[in-house]
Design brief:
The chain is 33% helix and 32% strand. With 175 residues, the protein is an alpha+beta fold. Bound molecules: coenzyme A (COA).
Length: 175
């Protein structure tokens, strides 16, 4: 599994002090990884969601947010909303393709199942759709979202979760 392939990759709950770095991972991930699917104006509108760091931090703190680190430094993050929807999943471009995304998604799937959710949804960007397909998410509908006057397409995808052994939540949540 990924932890063996990349021994220095680790996960931990988000801390308030992480917010500026996570906002930068969000911005850089959109800017550098999604250019084949979204034009510059769309990418700017999307990454502006983290411009107000107080608001961005409050959104992350209101969800179950995990941070992926390499040698202690944040390289990606993922946020679970209501135990059943992946609200965010972003990896820094310099660390893309090294299994941080898979590790984060795996953890959210396990947490959602442990908390009794039978399925997990995500509004996947066109860039990330293949990533989620590989993990067993199925496309349900195409959407267009309006952000600061720009229209961005995404796909609602759903994965059935296997019931967690023991049923009830056994993992702690982010602060
Ligand atoms: C999508 C994203 C989170 C993937 O993170 P990552 O750390 O690069 O992905 P991983 O290295 O864990 O990839 C796991 C597997 O999925 C594959 N994969 C990764 N991105 C993929 C993609 N866009 N399409 C198809 N397969 C993909 C990898 O090749 C790897 O396959 P393997 O297990 O056979 O080696 C990252 O590219 C990203 O931040 N993208 C920009 C922001 C974005 O669109 N986020 C999603 C919002 S819903």
């Amino acid at each position: 599994m990924s932890a063996q392939a990349h021994p220095k990759l680790a996960l931990r709950p988000m801390l308030p002090a992480d917010v500026p770095l996570l906002a930068e991972i969000f911005r850089a991930g959109i800017e550098e990884l999604t250019g084949e699917d979204y034009d510059e104006a769309q990418r700017e509108a999307w990454s502006a969601e983290a411009e107000d760091q107080e608001q961005f931090g409050a959104r992350l703190a209101g969800e179950l947010t995990l941070v992926a680190t390499r040698s202690g430094a944040p390289i990606g993050f993922a946020a679970l909303a209501g135990n059943k929807r992946i609200d965010m999943l972003y990896v820094h471009p310099a660390a893309a393709g090294q299994e941080a995304g898979a590790m984060l998604c795996d953890a959210l799937e396990k947490l959602a199942a442990a908390r009794g959710s039978k399925e997990l949804t995500v509004e996947a960007s066109d860039t990330a759709r293949g990533f989620f397909e590989r993990r067993g998410f199925c496309a349900q509908s195409r959407n267009t979202v309006s952000l600061r006057g720009e229209w961005l397409a995404n796909t609602t995808m759903v994965k059935r979760l296997e019931a967690a052994p023991g049923g009830a939540a056994s993992t702690r949540s982010a602060p």
